[in-house]
Design a protein that fits this description.
The chain has 141 residues and is mainly beta. It has one helix and twelve strands, in the order ββββββββββββα. The strands form three sheets. The protein has a five-stranded antiparallel sheet, with no helix packed on it. The chain is globular, with a radius of gyration of 15 Å.
């Protein structure tokens, strides 16, 4: 069985621009590998704050630092993890379902845009890492 952590990938979006500045366009089902149902953004987080700290049973996400920078740590619940640095406004990270995510090391000017494949449903979030590991082991065991 393929681990979902292997589906995590960096995305690069086309940049358009001239002397007036840059324009980055992202379209659902084209640049983003799903239909966008929800967008939210995180800003004003101190460098020592950790956001996320959950996994999702149904939602896929793309995270884009449209300003500043942050890091994203993803874990698969079986001891594997990867860390990504988001520091360019034309790149993002795709996060499939059932990966644990922590966003941290925010710069003071960080604005982290999150695009989601679902509307918000509280019960599809797994907010306890031990529960996440149990679900992963149940799915693969």
């Amino acid at each position: 069985m393929e681990h979902n952590i292997n589906k995590v990938k960096m995305l690069e979006f086309p940049q358009h621009g001239d002397e007036r500045g840059h324009l980055v366009i992202v379209e659902g089902n084209k640049d983003i590998p799903f239909e966008i149902k929800r967008a939210f953004y995180i800003y004003g987080s101190d460098a020592d704050v950790v956001r996320g700290q959950h996994a999702n049973r149904e939602s896929e996400f793309v995270l884009i630092n449209v300003a500043g920078k942050s890091k994203v740590r993803v874990k698969d619940g079986e001891g594997n993890e990867a860390i990504f640095c988001l520091n360019r406004p034309h790149t993002g990270i795709y996060l499939p379902t059932m990966v644990w995510k922590d966003m941290y090391d925010f710069s003071s000017d960080s604005v982290l845009l999150v695009l989601a494949s679902t509307h918000y449903t509280p019960n599809e979030y797994i907010r306890d890492y031990d529960d996440f590991v149990k679900e992963i082991k149940g799915a693969t065991g």
